Amino acid sequence: MDTSAYQQLAKDKLGGEFEQLDLLITALTHRSYLNEHRSTVKEHNERLEFLGDAVLELVVTEYLYGNYSEPEGILTNWRSALVRTESIGAAAERLGLEPLLRLSRGEKRGTERARAQILANSFEAVTGALYLDKGYEAAKQFITDNILSTFDDILKTGSWMDPKSHLQEMVQSQGESTPQYRVLSEEGPDHDKVFTVGVFVDDRQKGQGQGPSKQAAQVAAATDALKQYQ
Fold first, then answer.
1. Three-state DSSP state, 213
2. 108-125 pLDDT, tens digit each
3. Which of 38, 148, 172, 189 is most buried, taking the most CB atoms under 10 A from its CB?
4. Residue 16: which region, alpha, beta or left (left: phi > 0; alpha: psi -120 to 50)?
5. Residue 14 pLDDT greater than 70, yes or no
6. CA dist., res. 208 & res. 227, Å (int)
7. Spatial contact of 127 and 23, defined as CB atoms under 8 Å apart
8. Known catalytic residues?
9. What angle do CA 53, 95, 44 make, to 5 degrees?
């Protein structure tokens, strides 16, 4: 196995070469890869993901607590925005982790949603590997550079708010009525339904979204509608 690309990632993006390069390779090994390589690969990244998730939460919490005096509820919402799947998945993509992921052939052909989750998990696993190989300060710098650096944009756009709450605030600031959500369609069997929901303001449809529940579809519709107000 050629490990040069992993060591190059470490040198370019992770603060220097890893002493334990196997940790980084494992951090980028999905569970599905083991099914096709049982004779040569023994570990996947879920334990490192578990560790990295805790380090990520601590660093973000420490930063918010030390720099802002807002009440707990707002700090919690800010933290959630910083560590949610979309945020850390985007960070993994910027780092160029995707080409280095070791996945089964089936996972490589997976859905966009599955891909985003795998990328987010890989970022957490890399954080865990970095913590073990180089220590807390190195992991903290990595999180600062790749996650905390996006915080100003999160504040500016208001994306830390729940999309439905954010949409209501935007709509009311323009003197319009409270958004109303309507189910437009339901498809699929009971155990695997897909709901399509529209959001309407003053009887005009502003957005539409789909999801496995009405609530998820409402959030998707609100997110779609926000594009008109931002």
1. coil
2. 887 777 888 999 999 999
3. 148
4. left
5. yes
6. 11
7. no
8. 53, 124
9. 50
* CATH number 3.30.160.20 given to 163-229: yes
Domains 4-156 and 163-229 share a fold: no
pLDDT in tens, 45-67: 999 999 999 999 999 999 999 99
Contacts of 217 (CB under 8 A, 6+ apart): 183, 195, 196, 197, 209, 210, 211
Residue with tokens 């970095």: 130
pTM: 0.74
**What residues contact residue 80 under an 8 Å CB cut-off, 6+ apart?**
160
Contact predicate 176/92, CB 8 Å: no
Which CATH architecture group holds 4-156?
A: Orthogonal Bundle (1.10)
CA distances (Å), 210 to each of 83, 116, 207, in order? 23, 17, 11
Where do the domains of the chain lie?
A: 4-156, 163-229
Strands (E), the chain: 180-187, 194-201, 204-211
Is residue 40 a contact partner of residue 26, using CB atoms and an 8 Å limit?
no
Mean residue pLDDT across the chain: 91
List the one residue out of 121, 128, 105 whose CA is nearest residue 14: 128
Tell which phi-psi region holds residue 196, choosing left (phi > 0), alpha (psi between -120 and 50) or beta.
beta
Mean pLDDT, residues 69-79:
91
Question: What 3-state DSSP class applies to 168?
Answer: helix
